Amino acid sequence: MQVGPPSPTGPYVPQPPPGPARPSPWAVVAAALAGGWIVGCTVLTQAGGWLTDQVLLASGLDRLPWLWPALGLPAVLLAGMPALLLALLPRSAAVRATGRAWLAGVLVLATLGLLRAIPPVHHEAYLAALAGTAALAATVLARLARRRAVGAPPPAGQPAGAAGGRRPGGLTLLGVAAGLVLLLPWVWLGALGGPLETGLAALAAAALGALAGALLDAGFWAPFAVGEPPRPARLVLVGGLVAGVALLLLAAGIGQSGAQLPLLLTLPPAGFALAALQAAARRPGAGRAADRAPAGWLVGLAVLGPLAFTDPEEISLVLTNTRDVPFWVAAAAGAGFAVAALLAVAYGVLLARPRGRTPSRRVAAVTAATLLVATGVIAAGPGQPGLHGERLLVVLREQADLTGLPAGAPGRAGRDARAAEVYRRLVATADRSQAGLRRDLRRLRLPYTPYYLVNAVEVAGGPGMRAWLAGRPEVDRVLVSQRLRPLPAPAGVSRGTAPAPTGPEWNIRLIGADRVWSQLGVDGSGVVVGSSDSGVDGGHPALAGGFRGGDDSWYDPWNGTRAPADRGGHGTHTVGSAVGRGGLGVAPGAQWVGCVNLDRNLGNPAYYLDCLQFMLAPFPPGGDPFTDGRPSRAPDILTNSWGCPSIEGCDPRVLRPATAALDAAGILVVAAAGNTGPYCGSIDDPPAPYPDVLTVGAVDRQRRVTSFSSRGPAPGGAAKPDLVAPGAEVVSAMPGGGYARLDGTSMATPQVAGVVALMWSANPALVGDLARTRQLLRETATPAIASYRSRDPADACGGDRNITGAGLVDAYAAVRAARS
User: Fold this and answer.
1) Whether residue 312 sits in one domain with residue 406
2) What is the DSSP secondary structure assignment for residue 808, as one 8-state letter?
3) Does the reported pTM lie above 0.90?
């Protein structure tokens, strides 16, 4: 019996409903072009923003807090407009889903970019804001997805209600395994911060994982999985590519400036792995669809690496001269990219075959558990175990009264008496005024380090501790004392490639130091120069004979070395310019003592204080600076080729009591002006702006002030620098017995310290007479040629005095004046 109308060709066969229309090739081309455009715009704006931050840092200019929020506007316009057109115009559901996902990613990027206005020094506040914003965005996207899904049939291969259940399925566990594999390079090569910082990073990673799950939910994948029979290859290739662009946009908004760069490499390839999990979920008999959970776990664990195991302030060009944090971040990012690509291929081959078999939940659970154990073993073994957070420098209101010091006898005897009295008053003030604070810190079992040169205490703690400390009546202010995180391998040693000198170098001849040796018979004998820097290679042939020796001539608060050593090379070079033999140093007969206040080219106010205290009252290894200091062993002159900017935790006043105390003790502090010229007012990082510091700029062979030499006036209007000295292409010692030709006011500064050593060697009665020494240096200086940023009168810095100081130091004239 026929059921349907007769047919000339046979009985009627019911036909399946028509499938979705094939997307127009023009729409596909437009989507591909839009995707390439979005990727290019995102990568360029992120790399350009980070480079801008780095140039400002290297130039000594203030960070632009509006930089990253401002970059959000072009991101919305340049990347958001094509995404919006794709979401609205094409008839293809897949192309529209592509546009919606990319538009959501652009909006997320612009929103998260606003958070980078928070200063990097307040990293905990940034992570908390990131967690809250990501959680809010995930909630909004999830609600929008639910509204779109009302009345829509479940995705192919998933019966209604299949997404429920509490136990994670096999595909979710495979997402966890993929995330752990992406996390492993960071656990091995990175290091955690403080407890609060680590906890907030984990919270932010969880929120970002939820955001990724909401961005790549079932509604996103469904248009790429249509067809009868299903074509998993299309889902993996096309859906994975679209997901990769969406993850790139998400990655660009994660982390402070610099932390997002590795994620731009590691997250996009993971889109293909997620697509493979979705293809497996839609295979008949798979049981349960991979919806948000795999994306949430994979992305959350992947972003935990750069968020928790690196400090964004250390992803800096300042540290690229050795195998430091930027090198290891690049290594982790490269490993993450390779792992993500392998995961995409492996998951695609194993999970996306039409007749393939999905791994059981037991196999997936064992895989995830094995990787979790491996992560813990690496963290406790080859990694850098422990917490390495920042500390707080608590500056007390009361500082020691150093007025009314006895004049004493001229020369070293009087200097030693004044230094002893200054030391006594400083220690007494600190012991008395810190007593209550120390007692409370001991009761809370918080480790702390007291200081007396500045009446301050360094203590471990986060924002909550900072607020409690700032509220105490004896506390003036609380600063963040930055700490570098450990490396998986020691940073490389900087070695020089310049040939060894065969006689006095050009800079020595320019200031007449060689004439002092040959004509006046003075070489600095009897004077001690103290260096606070990256260290000193005590075995260098130009420096070994000048080390004072004893148990109180070397201190390394960073690494605890017991003998003079240096990896960075900066300290070896500067000491060589001051007292090096063989034609390098201005005062080759003087002795030197050293302290390490820089490690990997960065410091913090506490370590700077460690070395300045040691220079006032040296103490033996393991000694207590408060009770074991020896003021009579203090060096006569201090050369300081460093500055403490705000990124290291200093404010303009923090080291002011320290230099005032050293000045009162009769110890001359010579400091580099800085290398942030030719901008006017660029002498602003302590200690260079202080009035009791002899600040030194740099000139070249033609006596012309170099373009990099910082200029005055100092904050408050004081004229700086005080003098200039040769600072371009200066040859001096480097670790391992080598030599290098370097530029900077760092190179000029030790030469002025060497000139003072010659003056005091020629006339020991001048030792400790800082006012008379400064006067003689100014009176005997020779003219230097000022350089300007432009012809604009505003770039003249208020007069040549703020560019050249009193002029080029003249060793020969200064020593003759000292003798007379």
Assistant:
1) no
2) B
3) no
**Rounded Cα gap, residues 552 and 349, in angstroms:** 66
Burial of 372 (0-12, 13-18, 19+ CB in 10 A): middle
Amino acid symbol at 225? A
Report pLDDT digits (tens) over 679-722. Answer: 999 999 999 999 999 999 999 999 999 999 999 999 989 999 99
What CA–CA distances, in Å, run from 762 to 122, 522, 542, 765, 815?
Answer: 51, 6, 22, 9, 7
Same domain, 373 and 396: no
Are 767 and 760 in contact by the 8 Å Cβ rule? The answer is yes
pLDDT in tens, 496-508: 899 999 999 999 9
Same domain, 517 and 470: no
Asked if the structure places residue 156 within a domain, the reply is no
| Three-class DSSP category at 469 | helix
Total tally of structural domains belonging to the chain: 3
With beta carbons less than 8 A apart as the criterion, state whether 582 and 549 touch: no
pLDDT at 464 over 60: yes
SS (H, E, C) 389-404: CCEEEEEECCCCCCCC
Residue at which a domain ends, from 328, 352, 387: 387
Structure tokens at 121: 């020094």
**13 CB contacts (<8 Å, ≥6 apart)?**
none
Based on DSSP, count helices (H) and strands (E) in the chain, helices before strands. Answer: 26, 15
Does 750 map to a domain?
Answer: yes
Quote the DSSP letter at residue 499. Answer: P
Domain identity same for 457 and 510: no
Tokens of 39: 């990727």
Residue 302: partners with Cβ closer than 8 Å, 6 or more residues away: 179, 182, 183, 263, 266, 267, 270, 336
Q: Answer yes or no: are the C-beta atoms of 401 and 428 closer than 8 Å.
A: no
Residue 13 pLDDT > 60, yes or no? no
Q: Is residue 260 part of a domain?
A: yes
Q: Are 225 and 156 in contact (CB under 8 A)?
A: yes
Contact 215, 244 (CB under 8 A): no
Alpha helix locations (H) across 454-550?
Answer: 463-470, 506-510, 513-515
Task: Tell which residue, 590, 537, 602, has the closest CA to residue 563.
Answer: 537
Same domain, 412 and 516: no
Domain check: are 541 and 468 in the same one?
no
Is 206 in the same domain as 313? yes
The pLDDT score that the predictor gives to residue 8 is 42
**Residues 524 and 448 placed together within one structural domain of the fold:** no
Alpha helices in 216-324 (DSSP H): 218-221, 232-234, 240-252, 260-281, 293-308
> Helix, strand, coil proportions of the chain in percent (round to 5)?
50, 10, 40
Residues of the domain holding 519: 506-819
H or E, element range at 179: helix 170-189
More confident residue, 221 or 817: 817
Q: Which residues are catalytic?
A: 533, 570, 746
Mean pLDDT across 764-775: 97
Q: What DSSP letter does each residue of 69-126 carry, written as one string?
A: HHHHHHIIIIIHHHHHHHHHS-S-HHHHHHHHHHHHHHHHHHHHHGGGGS-TT-HHHH
SS3 175: helix
Q: How far apart are alpha carbons 494 and 733 in whole angstroms?
A: 11
- With residue 432 as reference, give the H or E element that holds it: helix 412-433
Pairing of strands 668-672, 730-734: unpaired
